[in-house]
Amino acid sequence: MIRIIVYITVFIISSFFSIISAQNKPSIPCNDPAYTQFNFWIGNWDVYNAQGKLIGHNNVVKMPNACAIQENWTSATSKSEGTSYNYYNNTDNTWNQLWIDNTGFSLLLKGTFKENTMTLNSELVHNDKGNFYNQITWTKNSDGSVTQVWNYLDENRKKIKEVFKGIYKKH
Description:
51% strand; 10-stranded antiparallel β-barrel
């Protein structure tokens, strides 16, 4: 009889700790809503300029092994190719992008998502073109397309020049 009481007691205690353990499973950070703010850009895209001419292809994928999005760009009008890695940093609540292309150019951006637009900016650049910030925005359009605009901004954050404008349409 004591053996049965011991087995029942061990069963009850182990069941109790199993329930407690199941309730305390850590959440997966990639599922937090902040990590999904840039998901509107995920897809296989044909990219057009403002005049409707095809200028490139962009395959943007969610990385299966990280809380990150990878961009894979191929130009339709030149030999330009590049990749970016985009991730949400929960320590400062910002989105970050590292772009690297086949010419060796790289660009590091940081910013936030607000009202259907992701806005990322570089640090102040000092070169032969002068001092400027890079600002790239991605806007989720109501028809499912995405508009990307890359501008140079002066030191007062006023637009100097539009470098790129692309309209992304699902391939």
